[in-house]
Amino acid sequence: MFSSLNNKIDYFHNRDFVIIGAGIDSSTTIPNSNLIVADGALRACLERKIIPEIIVTDLDGYVSDVLYAHSKGSKIVLHAHGDNLSFLHQYYSQINPICVTSTYPSENTFCWGGFTDGDRALMMSLSLGALRIGLLGFNFEKVGLYSGRYSPRKLKKLKWAEKIISKCMEQYDNISYI
Fold this sequence. Notes:
This protein has 178 residues and is α/β, with parallel strands linked by helices. The protein is built from 6 helices and 7 strands.
């Protein structure tokens, strides 16, 4: 289904998506279709019995949730980087990603940009021609409940994500916070 870039473009082109960020809180209502989730936000979806269409992950969140959602039909976009290569090798065949992203594109990977799973999901959606993109659960001021292990480094990453998303919103008029 996603063996080529053209297949990916066809899948995204002229479709609306909602990207769920890990800053979502437990009381926020999540739509139940056309969802792309950033890694840790998957847990918020599963708590609400929602299986997202796509999960963008570098496997630093709740891997068991990713495996479960994949078994129920979620497609996985996997970001490979130096810190997660052991997880990549361990889980690759179980999650069968629709594509692999990396910092530097190669013959078998894509690089749409982004620094966190959330802004990477946005840049992927923009690059592949999504019609409208809603952002839900993006909080750049604190590490969310669904972000996994807390570290002060995550706050710095969130500031980069905010810059990337702000720049995307300046350049595209099809992105909005919902």
